[in-house]
Amino acid sequence: MDSVLAQAPAFFSAGNIAFVLAALWRTIAMTAIGCSLGFVFGLGIAILRRSTIGWLAPARWLAALYVETFRRVPFLVILIMALFALQPVAPQLSLLAIATIAVTLVATAFLSETIRGGLDSVPRQQWEGAAALNFGAWHTLVRVMLPQAMRVILPPASAFVVMFVKDTSLASHLGVVELTFSGKILVNRGFSPVLGFGVILVLYFALSWPLSIAAARLEKRLAAPRHR
Amino acid sequence: MRHLDIADLHAGYGSQQILHGVSLSVDRGEVLSLIGPSGSGKSTLLRTLIGLTQPSAGTVSVGGEAVDYARKADLARLRDRMTIVFQQYNLFQNMTVLGNVTVTPVKIRKRPAAEVEARARALLDRVGMGDKCDAYPENLSGGQQQRVAIARALALDPEILLLDEVTSALDPERVGEVLAVIRELAGEGITMLIVSHEMAFVREVSTRVAMMDAGRVVEVGTPAQIFENPTEARTRDFTARIFRH
Ligand SMILES: Nc1ncnc2c1ncn2[C@@H]1O[C@H](COP(=O)(O)OP(=O)(O)OP(=O)(O)O)[C@@H](O)[C@H]1O
Ligand SMILES: [Mg+2]
């Protein structure tokens, strides 16, 4: 404990703080960009898989194959696959960008299933009503389907994102200096693991706790009409 | 020229045929009621007219223009002129009562919001729902939702209004109110197709009555003809059975 206290001034140097904050930023970027893009692409896949247009059948089949594969392969494997697949064709991509693409690939697969379940939960009367009132596909989606589906989508989707904040630590295997890796580097430089990983632990908590609270707030707001 | 002309219409769900050649002609401002046993295809006929169920054969013309249900432009034009009040109301659960009535005129037809809202409030008053503008559908009774659905349809100024079991969830005193609204609308020249099990209501409000059975119109006539002097045995059986209840 004494050694921890003695090390503290050196540990919390401006250089180290900037180093850890940069790593924190990479963790946030991978999660936020990857999961946001995953939501958008996942929505696309969910809509595709719900469509009944005949000539889209092969696309639906491919989408199902994609979703089932990427939900079953460990994230680390997807990270490594992304690295080997992307580096030769796009050498200018940074490791962070490649890791973010890997997050997007996995988030797309998981969130598409969550979104599909949400859209399926909206009774057919809702979109038939919209169709009879001349709503096009876009208006039906954003004014009727999504607002109602969100109640079902949000709890599992936010749980996924909160979980995935932690999983992005696997990007360290690619050499991305994200939060976990930054702690490891500091410990390797001779700082106490209690200090190095203690700070990392606090930062992970500080990241996922507000996320959970924000999600819970949003869930409440969406459920509100029932109780007004 | 008839306002709505339905000729030999066939439709169903998947491989199951429900309508086996329905033919009906309705004049402008007419109130035509569809009666018939449960499952005879009354709702399916209205759903087919508004383009939710694809017809497999036959023609529908509005104001002399044939509607091609496979063409998006035709469907959109049709739904600008014709609207439906569903048997299950189909109000949008994520919108308030006022939102349900204003969303289509404002967001789809791009009309000025203030004007639409004033009109919507007036229509909701007319159906006795003026004090529930900010309520959500799931907190309303069936009869209240039905009246909101009527206001939502009227806000679109339809030429042709399809009403499916529009009195089924109303309490007796409300039936009178809705009846009055429908009479006014008929007076304004709106053509109506009404599905109802409420024979007293049908008799009051209709210019003509069509009896449906097993996916066909078996008899059409004035209310007096259908209720007092039906030519078809099926019509006689049906009205006798329903009046006894
Ligand atoms: N969405 C659907 N999918 C498959 N079959 C359906 C669907 N809707 C109705 N049917 C079937 O079509 C037939 C006719 O139903 P429809 O709802 O048109 O009858 P209806 O005359 O309106 O009856 P009711 O008086 O009970 O409302 C019934 O056998 C019903 O089971
Ligand atoms: Mg019906």
UniProtKB/TrEMBL annotation, chain B:
Per the UniProt record, the source organism is Sphingomonas baiyangensis
Q: What is the lineage of its organism?
A: Bacteria, Pseudomonadati, Pseudomonadota, Alphaproteobacteria, Sphingomonadales
Which InterPro entries does the record match to this protein? AAA+_ATPase, ABC_ATPase_HisP-typ, ABC_transporter-like_ATP-bd, ABC_transporter-like_CS, MetN_ABC_transporter-like, P-loop_NTPase
The family this protein is said to belong to: Belongs to the ABC transporter superfamily.
Q: Which domain of life is it from?
A: Bacteria
Gene3D superfamilies named among the record's database cross-references: P-loop containing nucleotide triphosphate hydrolases
What does the entry list under GO cellular component?
plasma membrane
Any one GO molecular-function label of the UniProt entry: ABC-type amino acid transporter activity
User: Which UniProt keywords are present, listed alphabetically?
Assistant: Amino-acid transport, ATP-binding, Cell membrane, Membrane, Nucleotide-binding, Transport
Tell me the Pfam families matching this sequence.
ABC_tran
Q: How does it sit in the membrane?
A: Peripheral membrane protein
Name under which the protein is recorded: Amino acid ABC transporter ATP-binding protein
Q: Does the keyword Transport apply?
A: yes
Q: State its location(s).
A: Cell membrane
**Which residue numbers delimit the ABC transporter domain?**
4-239
Its primary localisation, in coarse terms, equals: membrane
